[in-house]
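User: Quick sanity check before I run a bigger batch. Here is a single chain. Can you write out its predicted 3D structure?
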Amino acid sequence: MGFNYEFMTTVLDNIDIGIFVLDANGNYLYVNNEYSNILKRPRESFSGMSIPKFKEQGYLTYSVWDMVVEKKAPVTTIVTINDFIFNKTHHFLTTASPSFNSDGSIKYIFFTQESIEKTSKRVQTGILNRHVITGSIVNPNDSQLDIIAESPQMKQLLEMLSHVSKTDASILISGPSGVGKEILTKYIHENSLRKEGPFVVLNCAAIPENLMESELYGYEKGAFSGASSSGKEGLIEAANGGTLFLDEINSMPPGLQAKLLRVLETKQVTRLGSVVPKKIDFRLICATNDDLQALVNKKLFRSDLFYRINVISVYIPPLCERKEDIIPLSTFYMQYFCKKYNCVKALDESVLNAMLSYEWPGNVRELRNFIERLIISSTNTELIISTVPKEFSIQNEVEAIRAVSPAELPTGMDSSPYYDEAFSLSSYMDECEKQLLLNLLEQRKSPLKIAQILKLDLSNVYRKIKKHNLKFVMEQ
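Assistant: Done. Predicted structure follows.
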């Protein structure tokens, strides 16, 4: 069609989405007019510039380029850009797609960048109103189940389970309430040789003791007063050929513990009111939010059953011990609930930082409910969610982070100071840095939390504290 360079650059310069191209080393090869407007830099200023140089000059601490180089795959994320001229913060939806050389190394990376406000307008005018949300959404009802795991603990756990899932060994999953034990059990089932079979769940704490036996083992017609005239299949029978998941097995009554042990040893189950056992074949996975070994020591749980179900022991740590999972989980639930409620939302940086500092006593369940509540309670025009309902404990963390204010001007300097020979930008920035750290330390923030808030390495925080001769209180 006779396209030439001048024609293509004219086309790209008339698109109201920022477009730029980097090489594998992060050097700028091309930027369009919209991208130069976003960064408020003339196009010619990008000549000879690169992402690493912007980092060295302090303009960037976080780059999508780093993510693409690490993953060698397309990345879509929300980038925050601070406009220091007008003292505003802007949020942009950024997508980066790499192209590759014949040896598999990255050749170019193509970027598009659009403000979240523009994205929202497209949604509201109907261009994206058919539930189109950028990013991958995992439907909890899909047969294929994905686990979000960025922390080393969870990655190591999933790697182990990928091997264990292929066996028929009984698994005992422990961990505090809300960490996702049932989700992990579904992951095990769907990666097992029994994935075509049924997946049956019983929460032992949710069923009264007098009904649990009939639920587990079923009954014949007329077995007891009120029994169905046709009898009923028990959950153990229903799990034949598949997986039986007994949640909160620590709540199982002692009498049923003995009967379950018998089923596991004989591979047979007998319905209530019957004397004819049925052969069964199922994989047992149990979960507990209590210390079963301690219950065994107290004679509150049978030791023989404990050793039978504890062939493979799995512990899921609380969310506060795997902070690397907080932002990925938040992103997933933001995308999931934005799709559910047909909207486009993003979290303000202060909220994200507060989420990293918060301890999450309710774990993943609390985080999920928190995200859904934020989306539901925000207005249609509120694209960047920065307000947290007061009833949430995390509100204290948000307020604490927002209380960190820039340093005041050095003594003797007003808003229009006289810059004498003793003044320098370096000394002023040092004073700002010192005051910022002091404000955080006075709020009894630990060096780890300061590193999370300021997006610095922990070792860097310690160096700065030592540099300014500041003191902090060790967490107990």
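The radius of gyration is 29 Å.

User: Great, the batch can go ahead then.
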